[in-house]
Amino acid sequence: MQILHYLPTQQQLALNPVVAQCVVDLLLEPFGSRVQAIEFWRDYTSTIVVFDPDDDAHKSLACLDDVTRYFIERSEHLPEFIESLPDGYQLSLTITDDEGRGLYLIKPTDMDLSKTND
Question: Are 40 and 30 in contact (CB under 8 A)?
């Protein structure tokens, strides 16, 4: 599992290059330019959580604070949107406050995080 609190480049994501580039493209899309996206992320830090197929989701989630787990669950069940990514991944977003911060959840499509909740 990887957790980021900044706008990453393709190389900073723990994903294969094709999936990572798709993620970066989706993160930049609403802003029109990388510069505008960086400015927004600097002022309104969001969170990116990346799960790998080899991750033990139960152990990974157990290491997180309650707030992060809550927003991962929201992103899993009540996302603002879900985008399919190459190689069986998906990106979903949940907005975490009124100013537009959010949690982006990137995971294998077939990884069911709800089964890991106690």
Answer: no
State the Cα–Cα distance between residues 20 and 86, nearest whole angstrom: 9
Query: pTM for this structure?
Result: 0.92
Q: Is the dihedral of CA 79, 24, 110, 62 positive or negative?
A: negative
Residue 104 tokens read as 């982006």
Region for 99 from its dihedrals, namely left if φ exceeds 0, alpha if ψ lies in -120 to 50, beta otherwise: alpha
Distance between CA 109 and CA 86 in Å, rounded? 10
- The total of other beta-carbon atoms located within 10 Å of residue 82's CB is 14
pLDDT at 115 over 80: no
List the structure tokens of 113.
Answer: 């995080």
pLDDT per position as a tens digit, 73-103: 999 999 999 999 999 999 999 999 998 899 9
Angstrom distance (rounded) from CA 72 to CA 80: 12
3-state helix, strand, coil in the chain (%, to 5): 40, 20, 35
